[in-house]
Amino acid sequence: MELHLQSHRWQARLPDWAAAAVAGFGAGGVLMLLELSWSSLTSATDPWLTTRMIAALVMSWDVLQTSGYSLGVTVAALLVHYALGVAFGIMLAAIMAPFRLDSSLAMALTTGAAFGLLLYVLNFYGMAGVYTWFVALRGWPTAIAHVIFGMTAALIYLKLERPGRPR
User: Fold this and answer.
1) For a pLDDT cut of 90, what percent of the chain falls above it?
2) Structural domain span for residue 69
3) Which of 28, 30, 43, 162 is least surrounded, with the fewest CB atoms within 10 Å of its CB?
4) What whole-number distance in Å separates Cα of residue 114 and Cα of residue 13?
């Protein structure tokens, strides 16, 4: 059995941007389903509260004063969630490619998990200073969901990237 060691020093290597965007979009969908499932299981009063919290990023604080399902709020939350998912998928790929963190499944999943945990900390501790309603979402379920987001984005990217494509 031959063992191949891979250097993970920086090198000029561009990510596959299309694969990164699709990976973020797909992982954003997984995260959204996890959040909806969790809020449906734990919220005795309003399972749509998390959706309104996400929509409030673009619709203002006033949307948090309502309750129940709203098509407009749901569409806004979907747009925000998918746009952020794509942006974060691109950021993850921009980290993975130049350091060859996509050299193996284990390396990609570990990188994705660390990235997801970092996103959780930045979003729910850093950004919560501006978007104060995110403090209510802090906790293990949200942290685990973000780790799963990162791992899913890394896995999808790893499967879709075309490293030998012409630049």
Assistant:
1) 64
2) 17-160
3) 162
4) 21
The answer as to whether 11 is a domain residue is: no
Q: Over the chain, what HEC string results? A: CCCCCCCCCCCCCCCCHHHHHHHHHHHHHHHHHHHHHHHHHHCCCCCCHHHHHHHHHHHCHHHHHCCCCCHHHHHHHHHHHHHHHHHHHHHHHHHHCCCCCCCCHHHHHHHHHHHHHHHHHHHHHHHHHCCHHHHHHCCHHHHHHHHHHHHHHHHHHHHHCCCCCCC
Structure tokens at 100: 């060859």
Question: 115-152: per-residue pLDDT in tens?
Answer: 999 999 999 999 988 999 889 889 999 999 999 999 99
Entry pTM: 0.86
Tell me which of 24-28, 129-133, 156-160 is least confident.
Answer: 129-133
Residue 12 lies in a domain: no
- 19's CB contacts (< 8 A; 6+ apart) are 93, 156, 157, 160, 161, 162
Query: 43 or 52: whose pLDDT is higher?
Result: 52
Q: CA angle, 52 as apex, 47 and 56 as ends, to 5°? A: 165
